[in-house]
Structure formats: structure tokens, C-alpha cells
Write a structure and sequence with these properties.
264 residues, binds adenosine-5'-diphosphate, alpha/beta, 9 helices, 7-stranded parallel β-sheet, 13% strand, binds magnesium ion, globular
């Protein structure tokens, strides 16, 4: 099974979907068979890619089969994004609730055989989609913005992650990532210092800067890497993408008998 990274948060609007899409694009640029998977009923992830949900398999389109026109987009299995979809959402949510192992099976059905890295988008907690996604994940990267409201939500977020960590595979790791750092704001500097003080080594030392180019890329149905030029935020995201790759290599090199079964 591919190495699964999930990007959850308790608060909405912190940039989870944007980060998932742009990290996967960078991983693909690095030659990896990476796929972004949307477990959020807002169904927003595919907007970052030049695909339409009906053209590719989606999480909630349970009876999906490729339309004739899919070949016009190239091989369907090469799409870097699995949208949430919506057609069979009720049925999917019943399966999600009644069969804890369903989401893992569904991922196996949806992902191309050669896929080696998956980054999943999740709804703001509380949501069963998030809970199940975190149970599956090899790596959990909590997303936080350097603002007072997000900082205030940190204890509740940590309590949620702790709760889920008992349900996850042994060896799964949780880290925090600060997104949307505006270096010109003294408040952002103060809150970043407070976040680092509270989380210590649980927060990644590198941050992702605020850059409206991310929103502009979305308006073009693109990720940043599809555009031209270098930028601070692209470099920031590249560091995170490389860190995910290093973590996935560590898992692949680990002795296989150190894992215990999950309570999914
Ligand atoms: N690093 C960033 N710099 C500037 N804008 C950002 C950044 N990350 C996300 N955004 C913007 O923040 C808004 C919310 O992002 P989104 O990914 O939808 O958040 P979430 O999935 O957590 O709800 C979007 O308008 C997006 O373009
Ligand atoms: Mg989102």
C-alpha cells in the first residue's frame, strides 16, 4: 500500500486543500507516483487540477466506470487526484460508519497499482471521514495558521490527535505545519513563537509563507508548480514534499514485523 499522509485540522480555512494539491503536484514533479485523495464532502480538491469528477473515479461514486470520453484526457489511472464525488455519498457514509475497514478497501480500489505516495484532504474535525483517514495514515500533518484563533484551538486539536493516535498503526507519526505565515506581520511572528513554544519539536521548523499566488493558481485550475518561476512559497512547499518523501522512505526501509495491526 502507498505511503499515506493526511493533513487534518480542527479549524476550517487553514489551507489543507491547497497544501494537499500543491504537495502532490510537487511529488509528481519529483517523479513520484503521487495521488491526492479528497475525503472532504466539500469536494473542493479537484478544482486545483484540470479534471472533472465524472471523468475519473471518485471516492463516493461507487458504481463508477470510465466514460468513453475519458480517453480524451489521457489514461484515467494517471490522474493525480481522486475527487470526493457525491453520487453515492449516503451509501458511502453508511459503509464508512458500519465498516471501519471500508475506507482502506476503497482506497485500494481507487488508486493505480503503481501509486506510491498518497496525500489525503480531510474535512475540519469533527467528521467520521477525518477520523477514518487518520486511522489509515502513516503520517499525520496537522495544519495551523499563525493567528490567535488557531492558536486558541491548539489544545482541542491536540486532544483529538491524541485520541485518534490510539486507533492508528503503531509507528504512525504526528507533526504540525504552520501555513500562511506573513513575515510582515508582527502578530504572526508572535503567534509563531507561541506555537513553537507550545509544540516544541512537534511542529516542523520550516513554515509555508502567505502568498496569494496559491489562490491565483487555483483560479486557473492549476497548482503552483504548473506555473512559471520560483517563489518563497514554492520553496517552502518543496521542503515539506521532500520531508514527506524522507518519511515514506523510512517506512519502506523499516523491518516489516514491527507493525501491529490497526483497530480500523
Ligand atoms: N500559504 C497560503 N498563502 C495564501 N493563501 C493561502 C495559503 N494557503 C491557503 N490559502 C488560501 O486560503 C483559503 C483557504 O484554503 P483552503 O485550502 O480551502 O483551506 P481548508 O481546506 O483548510 O478549508 C484559500 O483561499 C486559499 O487560496
Ligand atoms: Mg478544504
Amino acid at each position: 500500500m502507498a505511503f499515506i499522509t493526511a493533513l487534518p485540522s480542527l479549524k476550517g480555512g487553514v489551507g489543507r486543500t491547497t497544501l494537499v494539491a500543491n504537495l502532490v503536484s510537487l511529488l509528481v514533479q519529483r517523479g513520484r507516483h503521487a495521488v491526492a485523495v479528497d475525503f472532504d464532502p466539500q469536494n473542493g480538491l479537484y478544482h486545483h487540477f484540470a479534471i472533472e469528477p465524472g471523468m475519473v473515479p471518485s471516492v463516493c461514486d461507487l458504481g463508477w466506470s470510465p466514460p468513453r470520453t475519458a480517453t480524451a484526457l489521457g489514461r484515467v489511472s494517471e490522474a493525480p487526484c481522486v475527487p470526493f464525488g457525491f453520487r453515492d455519498r449516503r451509501q458511502a457514509e453508511t459503509l464508512l460508519a458500519e465498516r471501519p475497514e471500508w475506507l482502506k478497501q476503497r482506497l485500494k480500489e481507487l488508486l493505480p497499482a503503481h501509486c506510491d505516495v498518497v496525500v489525503v484532504d480531510t474535512p475540519a474535525y469533527p467528521s467520521l471521514w477525518t477520523r477514518r483517514a487518520l486511522q489509515l495514515a502513516d503520517l499525520v500533518v496537522g495544519v495551523i495558521t499563525p493567528d490567535p484563533a488557531a492558536f486558541a484551538s491548539l489544545p482541542a486539536s491536540e486532544a483529538f490527535f491524541d485520541e485518534i493516535s490510539f486507533e492508528r498503526m503503531s509507528g504512525a507519526e504526528t507533526q504540525w505545519l504552520v501555513n500562511r505565515f506573513d513575515g510582515t506581520s508582527s502578530l504572526a511572528h508572535d503567534v509563531l513563537a507561541a506555537i513553537r513554544g507550545a509544540l516544541g519539536q512537534r511542529v516542523l521548523p520550516n513554515i509555508v509563507h502567505e502568498d496569494r499566488a496559491l489562490g491565483e493558481a487555483l483560479a486557473r485550475r492549476q497548482c503552483l508548480v504548473d506555473g512559471s518561476g520560483d517563489s518563497q512559497v514554492l520553496a517552502d512547499l518543496g521542503v515539506v514534499a521532500d520531508w514527506i518523501l524522507a518519511r515514506s522512505a523510512r517506512k519502506n526501509n523499516a523491518p516489516t514485523n514491527t507493525r501491529v495491526s490497526t483497530k480500523l
